[in-house]
Amino acid sequence: MLTLYGIANCDSCKKARKWLADNEIEHRFHDVRADGLTRAHIDHWLTRVPREKLVNTRSTTWRTLPEADRNGLDEKTTPPLLLENPTLIKRPVLETETQVLVGFVADQYDKLLN
To answer: Residue 87 class from Cβ within 10 Å (0-12 exposed, 13-18 middle, 19+ buried)?
Structure first.
């Protein structure tokens, strides 16, 4: 079973959910803000995708972080920061048994799932 991680009112997450439904791909939606995340989730994602791809540096949350947090982001500080601020995660995150995709690009979903 696929799991799509995101936020319910996020436009990119809505597009990904619609694409999955339109292509009749069974999945589970996990709202990172409402349902939370574990350190294990974030650590696993960081073994599959670069930190720079997982952290949304264009978000409002990112802009409100203290400059020291933004400048000091590394492999050690990223997981706790994402746990504390799940809206810093670039959305959606699609997790299969073997893959983790960040963001929604219909062609990438199609290539992976069809």
So the answer is: middle
